[in-house]
Amino acid sequence: MRAGSRILAPEGFLNLARGTVYHFLASDGRRNRVRLIEFKDDGKRISTHLVQLSQIDFEEAVENGWLVEDGQADSTPPWLTPVEGVAINHLENRRISPKESYEQKVNKRFAAISSLVERQAQVFISDDPDAFINAHAKALRPHQNAARIRLWFYSYVVFGQNKWSLLPPLHRIGGWNREGPGHTKKFGRPSRKGKRHGYRCDCTMQQKLLKGFLAYKSPHKTQNKIYSEILTKEFGCVAFKQSDATVDFKHPEGKPFPSFAQFKYWISKMISSKSLRVALRGTHGARAQSGSEGSFSENLINVNQRVEFDGYYISEKISGLTEGSAVDSFCVVRAVCALSGMVLGIGFSEGKENMAAYRMAIYSMACDKVKFCKQFGIEIAAEEWPSAGLSGNMVIDRGPAAGYEGAPDIHWLKSVELTPVYSGQSKATVESSHPRDKQTPGQPTYFHSRLDFVQMAKREILRVLKDNHTSDAGRRLDEEMILAGIKPTPHAIFTYWSMRGRDSSIGVPFNTAVREFLAPCPVSIRKEGVYLYGRKYNSRALKETGIFDMVARQGVINTTAYVLVMCVRQIWIDVKGSLYELDFVRPTRSSLGAIDISLGDLKEIDLIRRGKAADLREERPAHEQHYTDRFEKNTGIDWDAGERRIGRPSKGGAALRDTADYNRFRGATK
Q: Which residue ranges form the domains of the chain, and what is each CATH number?
């Protein structure tokens, strides 16, 4: 048991009060007396009471349980517990116009007891330590209050012999009950409008303020508006114009009402700061001004355990296919692993963000990335983008996914989570990974890119690889990963965990991914190939099925193919239950760039082709008549001059002579 240990007398012992906390002070040098200190604190005054026990009685009481040690020794006086552990500099900075610093106050008190501290052993050996301390107080110049000197000395000795135990309890200043009975005057500094201006905000007024605030609060209202509605509707005040052209509130019957400062002060005291922010700024506005509650990755142990989806719009204007003019770009949807931050999938949609782009992103997640990039004409190594497979927990935007039905549309998922409305922080991992443009002030400008749809899509795929290999993911590294020399990139982190089996990927067969996630489009099978909006596709495997021989006998077959909407280099078609991959049949005379166009461009080309064919059908009769008329004008004979006769042509002498004449004419011309 050391100095400062708390002692209780559960049953009462000698002259010790039952239930009172005493602090063990010390034993004297002859070890025949033990001294305990009781600190009395009634909220206004702190005093000490010294209790002396014989060593024998004390030890017997401890052994028999008449005295018990109540926890560890205190290092701070009970009256300083509210500020325990708070830096003195912080307490000092909170003071307004101090005449004397805390350091000066404590040093002044320690100077008054410093000689007692030096003679500490002599104090405890004496028969009456209180009398020894009192004599010291009287000997000081100027004289000091003996009770105060005893309090400082015993506090210093009991609570760790730390000079900061002498700190005055200034934090308790102003803590008296202002709501007690008998208070009628207004507290606080006088108003600028006069010493007696305003009313005291008592309990009744506070309750009316709270009731009015809860009734009229709104994130769409200012505090001035809420205050005005409370005064007019709860307190019955009216606004009136004074003679000096100023306007103020008053009560027709002279009843009390709060000022605007009182309204703000008491509302902030009666409502928690978080609830007040939500009431005045709304849920999202309050969250924007709140501290972080931690990252999603803190609760994850595997890559692909949680995947967040979100779309962004490309800011550049891309070049149109026919005229090359500036047209709006498209939406890019990314799927990001919440643990590693690596982009696992990418999808595109022409125009606005829609579920087709999300389905394409899910398709790219499920695919081997070498095969996926090849479908866009991009060659990559397998280790550049090592992810493949779906996640059991996908977080998708509520807007595009709102029309999804649980059973038929998402049976391939264990769970799908829709984010709350207007809640970007619910998928903060993917939101923070979007590319952003540098904002510059001045006249609005736009960038006209020379890239078309497919070229821009290729760029965004390569941007995924760039981000995976260059983004700073240092905050996602654990100590063991740092020691292992792992690069702070999403790709390195994903590879590290995946190679250790910490991967929640769900494998999906390629055929299933195509049927589930790619866009179905109508195609026609003819004897020479499969046509998608006029573009011809074929493959050796499809020829071996004999489908084209059957079509040659039966005519055209209309069916459905699966298409990547952003690049129609390849399509997939079901024949007899099997899926076949078809490549675009490029004529030798066409340019190499004609391979990579989007489905939208292909539809536009097909629309132009069909339009020209329709124009030709409409113009053909007029063209034919035009050349018929020219023949008649030139020869004077009708285009179809002559007559149709019955039977076969005659083989008589006249026919033989005409034939001989024709042969002689032909030989002469040669």
A: 6-82+96-170 (no CATH), 203-286 (no CATH), 303-435+447-499 (3.30.420.10), 518-607 (no CATH)
